[in-house]
Amino acid sequence: SAQQLYITASNSVFGDPWEGIEKSLVVVYGVLHNTELHGIGVKVVKENQCLRIHIDDAVQQKYCNSNGQINVLGACYGLKACTAKMQGLVQQKKLVVTASNNVFGDSWYGIEKSLVAVYCVGKLNSQNLTSGVRTCVVAESQKMSIVH
Questions:
Q1: Among residues 27, 33, 26, 45, which one has the least CA distance to residue 3?
Q2: pTM for this prediction
Protein backbone atom coordinates (compact mmCIF):
# COMPACT_ATOMS: atom_id res chain seq x y z
CA SER A 1 0.00 0.00 0.00
CA ALA A 2 0.99 3.65 -0.13
CA GLN A 3 1.37 3.53 3.66
CA GLN A 4 4.10 0.87 3.85
CA LEU A 5 6.87 -0.91 1.97
CA TYR A 6 8.36 -4.37 2.48
CA ILE A 7 11.49 -5.46 0.60
CA THR A 8 14.07 -8.19 1.13
CA ALA A 9 17.69 -7.07 1.15
CA SER A 10 18.95 -9.81 -1.14
CA ASN A 11 21.33 -10.28 -4.04
CA SER A 12 18.42 -11.52 -6.16
CA VAL A 13 16.70 -8.13 -5.73
CA PHE A 14 19.70 -5.75 -5.85
CA GLY A 15 22.48 -7.77 -7.48
CA ASP A 16 25.78 -8.73 -5.85
CA PRO A 17 28.34 -5.94 -6.25
CA TRP A 18 30.64 -7.44 -3.57
CA GLU A 19 30.55 -11.20 -4.02
CA GLY A 20 31.31 -13.08 -0.80
CA ILE A 21 30.96 -9.97 1.41
CA GLU A 22 28.07 -9.66 3.87
CA LYS A 23 26.10 -6.52 3.05
CA SER A 24 23.36 -4.33 4.45
CA LEU A 25 20.62 -2.23 2.91
CA VAL A 26 20.25 1.39 4.03
CA VAL A 27 17.17 3.38 3.06
CA VAL A 28 16.70 7.05 3.90
CA TYR A 29 13.17 8.11 3.01
CA GLY A 30 10.92 11.12 3.29
CA VAL A 31 7.18 11.53 3.66
CA LEU A 32 5.55 14.37 1.76
CA HIS A 33 2.26 15.88 2.88
CA ASN A 34 0.71 18.65 0.73
CA THR A 35 4.08 19.23 -1.02
CA GLU A 36 5.88 19.77 2.29
CA LEU A 37 8.34 17.37 3.84
CA HIS A 38 6.49 15.81 6.78
CA GLY A 39 9.21 13.55 8.13
CA ILE A 40 12.39 11.60 7.43
CA GLY A 41 13.23 8.04 8.35
CA VAL A 42 16.28 5.77 8.22
CA LYS A 43 16.06 1.98 8.05
CA VAL A 44 18.90 -0.54 7.82
CA VAL A 45 18.87 -4.34 7.70
CA LYS A 46 21.40 -7.10 7.12
CA GLU A 47 21.53 -8.98 3.85
CA ASN A 48 18.63 -11.47 3.42
CA GLN A 49 16.46 -9.71 6.02
CA CYS A 50 13.17 -7.98 5.26
CA LEU A 51 13.17 -4.20 5.46
CA ARG A 52 9.84 -2.71 6.57
CA ILE A 53 9.00 0.95 6.20
CA HIS A 54 5.72 2.37 7.47
CA ILE A 55 4.67 5.97 6.92
CA ASP A 56 4.32 6.46 10.69
CA ASP A 57 8.00 5.58 11.22
CA ALA A 58 9.15 8.88 9.71
CA VAL A 59 9.96 11.54 12.27
CA GLN A 60 9.68 15.29 12.09
CA GLN A 61 13.14 16.80 11.98
CA LYS A 62 14.35 20.34 12.47
CA TYR A 63 16.41 21.78 9.67
CA CYS A 64 18.56 24.83 9.40
CA ASN A 65 16.98 27.05 6.76
CA SER A 66 19.97 29.31 6.21
CA ASN A 67 21.63 29.32 2.81
CA GLY A 68 24.63 27.08 2.61
CA GLN A 69 23.99 25.14 5.83
CA ILE A 70 24.44 21.36 5.57
CA ASN A 71 21.36 19.46 6.76
CA VAL A 72 21.91 15.76 7.46
CA LEU A 73 18.62 14.09 6.54
CA GLY A 74 19.69 10.57 7.45
CA ALA A 75 22.87 8.72 8.34
CA CYS A 76 23.89 5.19 9.21
CA TYR A 77 27.09 3.46 10.35
CA GLY A 78 27.02 -0.32 10.10
CA LEU A 79 23.59 -1.43 11.29
CA LYS A 80 22.87 1.67 13.37
CA ALA A 81 21.18 4.93 12.39
CA CYS A 82 23.31 7.88 13.51
CA THR A 83 21.44 10.86 12.06
CA ALA A 84 21.32 12.93 15.26
CA LYS A 85 25.02 12.37 15.95
CA MET A 86 25.94 13.45 12.40
CA GLN A 87 23.70 16.53 12.65
CA GLY A 88 25.60 17.49 15.79
CA LEU A 89 28.94 17.24 13.99
CA VAL A 90 28.10 19.91 11.38
CA GLN A 91 30.10 23.07 12.10
CA GLN A 92 30.30 26.26 10.04
CA LYS A 93 29.02 24.79 6.76
CA LYS A 94 31.15 21.64 6.94
CA LEU A 95 31.03 18.11 8.26
CA VAL A 96 34.29 16.21 8.71
CA VAL A 97 34.34 12.89 10.57
CA THR A 98 36.20 9.57 10.45
CA ALA A 99 34.02 6.49 10.02
CA SER A 100 35.07 4.45 13.05
CA ASN A 101 33.80 2.32 15.89
CA ASN A 102 35.31 4.86 18.29
CA VAL A 103 32.98 7.56 16.98
CA PHE A 104 29.81 5.56 16.23
CA GLY A 105 30.12 2.29 18.18
CA ASP A 106 30.47 -1.23 16.82
CA SER A 107 26.97 -2.18 15.69
CA TRP A 108 28.16 -5.13 13.59
CA TYR A 109 31.08 -6.85 15.32
CA GLY A 110 33.70 -8.36 13.03
CA ILE A 111 32.29 -6.80 9.85
CA GLU A 112 33.91 -3.85 8.07
CA LYS A 113 31.33 -1.10 8.04
CA SER A 114 30.58 1.98 5.99
CA LEU A 115 29.24 5.40 6.93
CA VAL A 116 26.37 6.66 4.78
CA ALA A 117 25.11 10.24 4.92
CA VAL A 118 22.17 11.66 2.98
CA TYR A 119 22.08 15.45 3.13
CA CYS A 120 21.01 18.67 1.49
CA VAL A 121 22.31 22.21 1.57
CA GLY A 122 19.75 24.74 2.79
CA LYS A 123 16.06 24.00 3.19
CA LEU A 124 14.64 20.89 1.53
CA ASN A 125 11.25 21.32 -0.11
CA SER A 126 9.16 19.75 -2.86
CA GLN A 127 10.87 21.85 -5.55
CA ASN A 128 14.39 20.57 -4.80
CA LEU A 129 13.54 17.17 -3.34
CA THR A 130 15.24 15.22 -6.10
CA SER A 131 17.92 17.67 -7.21
CA GLY A 132 18.85 18.93 -3.75
CA VAL A 133 19.51 15.62 -2.00
CA ARG A 134 23.07 14.27 -2.01
CA THR A 135 24.72 11.12 -0.70
CA CYS A 136 28.20 10.48 0.66
CA VAL A 137 29.55 7.01 1.55
CA VAL A 138 32.94 6.12 3.04
CA ALA A 139 34.42 2.86 4.28
CA GLU A 140 35.38 2.26 7.90
CA SER A 141 38.56 4.16 8.90
CA GLN A 142 38.08 6.66 6.05
CA LYS A 143 37.36 10.36 6.52
CA MET A 144 34.04 11.79 5.36
CA SER A 145 34.32 15.42 4.37
CA ILE A 146 31.29 17.43 3.28
CA VAL A 147 32.03 21.11 2.77
CA HIS A 148 29.81 23.81 1.35
A1: 33
A2: 0.84
